Amino acid sequence: MNVSARILLVDDDAAFRHVMASELSRLGHEVISAATGEEAIRLSAEFEPEVILLDLRLPGMDGLETLTAIRERNPSIEIIMLTGHGSIDTAIESIRMGAFDYVVKPCPLDELQVRIQRALERRSLRQRANLLERGLTPPDLAGSFVGESPEFKRLLELIDRVAPSDSTVLIGGETGSGKERAAKLIHARSPRKDKPFVIVDCAVLQESILQSELFGHERGAFTGAERSKPGLFEVAHGGTIFLDEIGEVSPATQTKLLRVLDTSSFRRVGGTAEVRVDVRVLASTNRDLGAMLRQGQFREDLYYRMSTITLEIPPLRNRGSDIVLLARHFVAVLNERFGSSKRIGDAALAVCQTHSWPGNVRELLHAVESAMVVCEGPEILPGHLPQSVRSTRFVEQPEPTSQSDHMLTLNEMESAYIRKALEISNGHRGNAARILGMSERTLYRKLHELGLVAENT
Asked: In whole angstroms, what is the distance from residue 410 CA to residue 389 CA?
């Protein structure tokens, strides 16, 4: 199927320009013409063509000079050179200088149409690659890091200190506290900021898939591996890879990760060749890796290698007035997204300050978004907030009246939170995991650890 294009035809032969422009227009292309290189440069800026058909022999500025000037101004334009039989060597030189292809005049229209279609395909591939690269390269997110509490300011100061280095960083913190955003900020302020930032969610990927995703695989490495595939470490070459929830990986994968950190090389699954990469590694966890180490669940050498530098994201409940600042910030962001002009009232903010926010910043964002959706007036009131926020806490920790009074342990409180989330979601683990701000796999593990599996079966 032919695709139409915006084409700039550049040739000093008026008769050739007229005939060729008519034929290309008949094929559905939008065509304008130029007789000189200087005119072509001006029209390429005004008309923004997708493809330029450029004659090598032009009066004044010749085809090669015009090619160089246009590519300096707009490298996304694909240029096909038009040449006579005596200028083949020059046409080949033009390809080295950035032209897509060349055709020999007089050129059959069907042949020229094929070259134009191929040029459009390459342009489309380049655009998609640029979009992918931009998607893998997050901007500096400092503007979205809202907070004035001493704990939060210390975190940002530490990020500024560690970002320029190439050291491995282990980011700790509760689910929803902002570990991924901290990793993106570290990357954005590092010398690697213009290179890819690749996220690997270790808690979501099944172990059988994780190694293939990280390191790639060769054709035939396992059933269904019909072609070789590069891993995410290769995709991140020159940039940063972020291993989210590193505590979830198996001992076998831990061994391979240690080798990459030590040697900057690995082998694809089913392969024998060494693949070398230049990648900075950031990792996060909401688990106690020290306890896992003592229990033999995490390699000691990998732990010390991963924790060259450690950052701890403070939980939202310890950030005082930051709750109010964040709530107002989220309202402003969502107003822009929804095209609305709502505000959050003081009464609703007071309710937010009494909530313990077990899901941290992520839970606050979802609560504000939910309130804005159900709020029909200009002001968000306490009644617009989700029930889980209005009830202040899933579990109230009683104040001890004497030294002998029993306070809930952290495990007991966590168990109570999970029970309440399952109760609210009518036993649906996926919905309960979303309420708690964790993956379903993490919830399933915690149910086992806390002995709650029998209750939920």
From this structure: 20
Say if residues 277 and 264 touch (Cβ distance below 8 Å). yes
pLDDT string in tens for the chain (457-residue length): 456 888 999 999 999 999 999 999 999 899 999 999 999 999 988 888 999 999 998 988 999 999 999 988 888 889 999 987 667 788 888 888 889 998 988 888 988 999 998 888 888 777 665 545 545 555 556 566 888 989 899 999 999 999 999 999 999 999 889 999 999 999 999 999 988 899 888 887 777 688 888 998 888 877 777 777 888 899 899 999 999 999 989 888 999 999 999 999 998 888 888 889 999 999 999 888 988 999 999 999 999 999 889 999 999 999 988 999 999 999 999 999 889 999 999 989 988 988 889 889 999 999 999 999 999 899 999 989 998 888 754 444 444 444 445 556 667 777 877 887 777 667 778 777 766 667 777 888 888 887 776 555 5
Q: What is the CATH architecture assignment of 6-135?
A: 3-Layer(aba) Sandwich (3.40)
Taking every pair of Cα atoms in the chain, the longest distance, rounded to a whole number of angstroms, is 103
User: How crowded is residue 154: how many other Cβ atoms within 10 Å of its Cβ?
Assistant: 12
- Domain 410-456 sits in CATH at 1.10.10
Q: Which fold has domain 317-390?
A: Helicase, Ruva Protein; domain 3 (1.10.8)
Contact, 146 vs 326, CB < 8 A? yes
Please name the helix (run of DSSP H) or strand (run of DSSP E) that holds residue 10, with its range, or none. strand 6-10
Rounded to whole angstroms, the Cα distance separating 399 from 406 reads 9
pTM above 0.90, yes or no: no
Residues 376, 342: Cα–Cα separation, whole Å: 9
Q: Which residues does 40 contact at the CB level (< 8 Å), separation at least 6?
A: 8, 10, 34, 52, 54, 66, 70
Give Cα 404 to chain centroid, integer Å: 51
CA distance 169 to 155: 13
